Amino acid sequence: MKCEFIFLTLFYNIVLVEIVYLMEKHKIPNESIENLIKLLDINPNNYQITQTSVSTIRAMQSLQRQSIPDMPDRIITATAVELGLLLITKDSKIITANVVEIIW
Question: Can you give the residue ranges of every domain in the chain?
Fold first, then answer.
């Protein structure tokens, strides 16, 4: 019997919005969103877009607005807190808030 593992990466819709925002501010390369869309198209079993849930909104309420003032950053951070996920970021405010484990 052959055993296979499938790793699923979820991208909340707000992450895609944040990528476009960062591209517009010239903080990340312009091809970033196209690369992500290609990943989603090529590997739909491994990469999926999901919506923000009510439980994410509740998790947002636990975050201090003063610590993470940018709304997309709070939604992304709340999602990681809610789901117990590691967060890939170099945003200094998210890192300083120390509410989620950071990879980078």
Answer: 9-103
Q: What is the helix, strand, coil percentage profile of the chain, to 5?
A: 50, 10, 40
Stated pTM of the model: 0.67
List of residues 6+ apart from 69 with CB closer than 8 A: 93
CATH class of 9-103: alpha beta
Q: Select from 35, 41, 9 the least CA-distant residue to 23.
A: 35
Kindly report, residue by residue over 44-67, the tens digit of the pLDDT: 888 888 788 898 889 999 999 999
